[in-house]
Recover the amino acids of this structure.
């Protein structure tokens, strides 16, 4: 590590800390129906929306109706995004003629399975992209489908978090709010103003925002290059604020049109964490004890900083294989040293390492470097961040309700230790709440491990069978008649995965972890635009979103109906260092018990192979089926 690198990390954390309370206080006022500084401007618009949509602001919903409203809205969103993709050829703002016969040769066809995957992805705030944005979608699709959904899907997550929080804040209540009111306020007062400011900042740094056709330019060597254009800054701002992550360009936030300068990079990282961190303070404010919010913020900060100070020194140390070959890996006055593969020189190792941890701590799939090129343990950290159900700050709304789920499990474990009924924020945590919490955890774990196993064995076996048994040759034709085309041999069995062995397994495991946890980043070596991956990853995204979210809304309804229990001398304090340690331990323990065997087959064994560990070199030569 270098002193300036450490200072950059500390500076980022201090700025995040400074904005957490003001933003959290604003959201607390907003979602409790109090007046904010934006009300003189936006309150008439809010009232007009209620009149047009027939929403009664004063009528609240129980958890069942709240969940039903959320699911119905999500279904309509899915159909809308799917339809726009399939019809893009006849829709406006399509200067490159995508989806038509006049499309350029490099354009990607939007097949039904790709449209399904993309609709599921943007519905669930995953923004996983099996396509190259600048080669696939028109400006209209990028704006009307993807950018709009970048506002709607985080707003839905915030609504689910509010329903859960009200379960702790209310006592003997039958309702947990009104989904339509929460959704309107989250979009109108929070996401839209912040996205507008963020887009203007990015434009000032060089992010583009236009409707031009793509430019053809000559390079210095005399070759022709196509420069993609489009309304980039508007999508970039909300993709970060809403922890969406889907890039306008294929290179995502490594592209200079999306992330032009180191200052823009800092702003983007702050936008990723801002709403998630602010909601932790909002939680404390809404339950009447801000210490509870700061305790959760402290626990998340411990896990965040631990991840950063594992990734950064490993990436700065570089690849030991290259060191043994005599390559200079130490930072000097003239070169950064370390592992610069897959990183932009304008960001370097520190900003790339920090960005990779921030984006996987939150459910934001944006990347400014290629995770596939990280050293094995540095690549393990983003993977583990995903597998903790992304409760380290987490996404917009999704982070808070995941954090509260683990807080319930932490106090439940503490209750088992002392033989006392667990309590949290004055509410007894009983069997119903624990069962719902475990249902959410098991659902995501099953999706990740189940789909990874199928893709590692069944999918590869199926591809292998096609490769070894090509279709039979057609029967000989009569002389003078046209010959049928010769049968084509399928691609080699590992065509979807660029790497064999443990790294290839890591790519598959990361894909399903990212999709199930609604993150959207990827180990870039895996090609996923085929029917198998488009369908199974889309299913993982939907299961991971709603099988995790709905049980927590049910917990919120159950807790809201309970009486508040006064604290006694036997009550476990949940606002101090002991609870912070218990929370961190619970997150780490559950992730380790669930995923350590799978991680051992991927990044862990790859780390020992890179360091030439004798035992793991021997295991690699044995050629276990899952590695071959």
């Amino acid at each position: 590590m270098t002193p300036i690198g450490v200072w950059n990390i500390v500076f980022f954390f201090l700025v995040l800390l400074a904005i957490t309370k003001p933003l959290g206080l604003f959201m607390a006022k907003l979602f409790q129906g109090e007046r904010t500084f934006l009300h003189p401007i936006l309150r008439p618009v809010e009232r007009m929306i209620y009149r047009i949509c027939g929403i009664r602001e004063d009528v609240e919903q129980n958890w069942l109706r709240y969940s039903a409203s959320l699911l119905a809205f999500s279904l309509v969103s899915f159909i809308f995004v799917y339809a726009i993709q399939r019809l893009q050829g006849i829709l406006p703002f399509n200067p490159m003629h995508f989806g038509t016969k006049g499309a350029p040769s490099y354009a990607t066809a939007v097949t039904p399975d790709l449209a399904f995957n993309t609709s599921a992805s943007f519905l669930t705030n995953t923004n996983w992209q099996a396509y190259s944005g600048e080669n696939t979608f028109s400006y209209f699709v990028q704006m009307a489908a993807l950018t709009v959904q970048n506002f709607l899907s985080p707003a839905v997550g915030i609504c689910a978090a509010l329903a859960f929080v009200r379960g702790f804040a209310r006592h003997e209540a039958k309702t947990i709010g009104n989904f339509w009111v929460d959704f309107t306020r989250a979009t109108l007062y929070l996401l839209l103003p912040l996205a507008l400011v963020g887009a203007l900042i990015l434009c000032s740094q060089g992010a583009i925002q236009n409707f031009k056709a793509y430019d053809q330019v000559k390079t210095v060597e005399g070759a022709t290059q196509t420069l993609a254009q489009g309304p980039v800054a508007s999508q970039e701002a909300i993709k970060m604020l809403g922890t969406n992550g889907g890039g306008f360009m294929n290179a995502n936030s490594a592209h200079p049109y999306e992330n032009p300068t180191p200052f823009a990079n800092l702003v983007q990282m702050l936008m990723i964490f801002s709403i998630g961190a602010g909601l932790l303070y909002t939680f404390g404010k809404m339950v009447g004890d801000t210490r509870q919010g700061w305790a959760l913020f402290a626990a998340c900060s411990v896990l965040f900083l631990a991840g950063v100070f594992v990734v950064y020194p490993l990436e700065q140390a570089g690849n030991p294989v290259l060191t043994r070959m005599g390559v200079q890996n130490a930072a000097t006055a003239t070169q950064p040293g370390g592992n610069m593969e897959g990183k932009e020189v304008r960001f370097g190792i520190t900003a790339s390492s920090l960005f990779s941890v921030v984006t996987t701590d939150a459910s934001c799939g944006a990347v400014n470097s290629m995770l596939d090129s990280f050293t094995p343990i540095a690549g393990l950290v983003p993977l583990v961040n995903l597998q903790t159900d992304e409760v380290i700050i987490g996404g917009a709304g999704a982070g808070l309700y995941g954090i509260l789920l683990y807080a319930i499990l932490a106090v439940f474990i503490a209750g088992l230790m002392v033989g006392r009924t667990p309590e949290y924020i004055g509410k007894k945590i009983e069997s119903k709440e624990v069962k719902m919490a475990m249902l959410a955890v098991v659902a995501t774990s099953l999706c990740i491990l189940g789909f990874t196993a199928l893709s590692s064995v069944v999918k590869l076996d199926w591809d292998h069978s096609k490769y070894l048994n090509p279709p039979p040759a057609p029967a000989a034709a009569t002389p003078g008649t046209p010959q049928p085309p010769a049968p084509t041999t399928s691609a080699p069995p590992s065509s979807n995965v660029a790497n064999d062995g443990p790294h290839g397994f890591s790519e598959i495991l990361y894909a399903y972890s990212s999709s199930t946890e609604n993150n959207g980043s990827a180990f870039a070596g895996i090609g996923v635009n085929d029917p198998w991956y488009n369908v199974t990853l889309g299913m993982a995204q939907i299961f991971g979103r709603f099988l995790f979210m709905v049980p927590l809304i049910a917990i919120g309804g159950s807790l809201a109906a309970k009486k508040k229990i006064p604290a006694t001398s036997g009550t476990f304090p949940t606002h101090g260092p002991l609870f912070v340690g218990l929370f961190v331990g619970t997150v780490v323990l559950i992730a380790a018990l669930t995923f350590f065997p799978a991680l051992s087959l991927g990044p862990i064994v790859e780390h020992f192979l890179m360091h030439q560990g004798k035992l793991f070199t021997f295991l690699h030569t044995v050629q276990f089926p899952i590695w071959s």
